[in-house]
């Protein structure tokens, strides 16, 4: 049977054959690319399983042998995001291997890169947060609650801002943004703000100095060079608040407080030394008066026996022999009440013993004129 065949038909068949070969080759190429990407992701997924096993089974045995629980707490908090970070890293390299269109690949790999930066920043934040909490607990156990309440949250906020800024700069640099101009603009802006708020910054820096140097703590009773006395209520960044003895709030800028002389009655401990000064009439038995003063002080329950109260003959006055009684109390808050009890008991016992506490008198002799 005769089949009509033309040269044009043969050419078309040959072209169709080559097109089929090109399609099959392209299909095989993409299949190879996809297979390699899957292998890369599978390897990283296996690595994440290995990391999870090490974090869950191996490292806890090592951290259990240490004296602190800080490493255990850090390990517990970073384990979940760390395994996720390894998986996302595998996804990033798998997408980067695929020969996708430039815009599609930039969007896909960029999105995974941003997720990786967020996860890594979260890991760093968890480590810092655990270290700060552990340090705050250590300070509280040492009796330095004021420092952990004031300085630790501030330091943690500064570190968080630093982490976020670093993550933002890394992300912008990945997308080929000009990071140098951004950093320069931030530096110039910070300089302008610093010049405009130099007084406030001076108070803030002084606040840091007070928190680190710690000449006083919250709750300490201090006396300023101007004579004001009160208990420290709060140590802020800009100012320190002092509750005076008449229950008013005294607010002092930190820079002024750093440059003044003050007396801390609660340092090195809260014990306080009291003094009662009085005079007895000339002719009194000084040794008896000193013995009686010590006995009176020992009758008061709040007066410490160690160190024991002491009485001294201080000086000769115009109309009296000046005596002084020194005693200690275990808390400076009891000083006024204890002094009141001692003074009241001195009046009673001196009256019973016939010891006179004189008051200034003046005798005027009038002479008759001739």
UniProtKB/TrEMBL annotation:
Domain Mechanosensitive ion channel transmembrane helices 2/3 residues, every copy: 157-198
Bilayer topology annotation: Multi-pass membrane protein
Mechanosensitive ion channel MscS C-terminal domain location: 276-357
Domain of life of the source: Bacteria
The UniProt record lists the keyword Methyltransferase: no
InterPro entries, per database record: LSM_dom_sf, MS_channel_1st, MS_channel_C, MscS_beta-dom_sf, MscS_channel_2nd, MscS_channel_C_sf, MscS_channel_TM-2
One Pfam family recorded for the sequence: MS_channel_2nd
Annotated keywords: Cell membrane, Membrane, Transmembrane, Transmembrane helix
Annotated ranges, domain Mechanosensitive ion channel MscS: 200-264
Localisation: Cell membrane
PANTHER family recorded: INNER MEMBRANE PROTEIN, YNAI-RELATED MECHANOSENSITIVE ION CHANNEL
Protein known as: Mechanosensitive ion channel family protein
Naturally occurring in which organism (per UniProt): Geomobilimonas luticola
């Amino acid at each position: 049977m005769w089949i009509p065949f033309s040269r044009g038909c043969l050419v078309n068949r040959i072209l169709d054959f080559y097109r089929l070969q090109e399609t099959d080759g392209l299909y095989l190429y993409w299949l190879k690319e996809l297979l390699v990407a899957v292998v890369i992701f599978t390897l990283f997924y296996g690595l994440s399983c290995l990391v999870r096993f090490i974090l869950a089974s191996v490292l806890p045995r090592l951290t259990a042998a240490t004296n602190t629980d800080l490493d255990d707490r850090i390990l517990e908090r970073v384990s979940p995001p760390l395994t996720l970070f390894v998986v996302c890293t595998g996804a990033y390299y798998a997408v980067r291997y695929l020969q996708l269109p430039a815009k599609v690949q930039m969007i896909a790999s960029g999105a995974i890169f941003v997720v990786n930066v967020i996860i890594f920043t979260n890991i760093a934040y968890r480590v810092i947060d655990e270290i700060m909490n552990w340090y705050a607990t250590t300070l509280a156990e040492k009796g330095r609650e004021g420092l952990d309440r004031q300085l630790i949250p501030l330091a943690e906020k500064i570190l968080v801002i630093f982490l976020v800024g670093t993550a933002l700069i890394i992300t912008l640099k990945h997308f080929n943004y000009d990071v140098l101009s951004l950093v320069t603009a931030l530096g110039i802006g910070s300089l302008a703000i610093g010049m405009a708020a130099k007084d406030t910054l001076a108070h803030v820096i002084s606040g840091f100095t007070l928190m680190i140097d710690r000449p006083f703590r919250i709750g300490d009773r201090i006396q300023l060079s101007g004579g004001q006395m009160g208990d420290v209520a709060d140590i802020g960044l800009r100012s320190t608040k002092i509750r005076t003895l008449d229950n008013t709030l005294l607010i002092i800028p930190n820079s002024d407080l750093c440059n003044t002389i003050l007396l801390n009655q609660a340092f090195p401990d809260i014990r306080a030394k009291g003094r009662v000064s009085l005079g007895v009439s000339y002719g009194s038995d000084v040794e008896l008066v000193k013995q009686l003063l010590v006995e009176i002080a020992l009758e008061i329950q709040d007066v410490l026996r160690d160190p024991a109260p002491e009485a001294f003959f201080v000086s000769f006055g115009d109309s009296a022999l000046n005596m002084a009684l020194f005693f200690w109390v275990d808390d400076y808050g009891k000083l006024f009440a204890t002094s009141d009890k001692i003074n009241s008991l001195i009046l009673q016992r001196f009256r019973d013993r016939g010891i006179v506490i004189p008051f200034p008198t003046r005798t005027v002799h009038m002479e008759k004129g001739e």
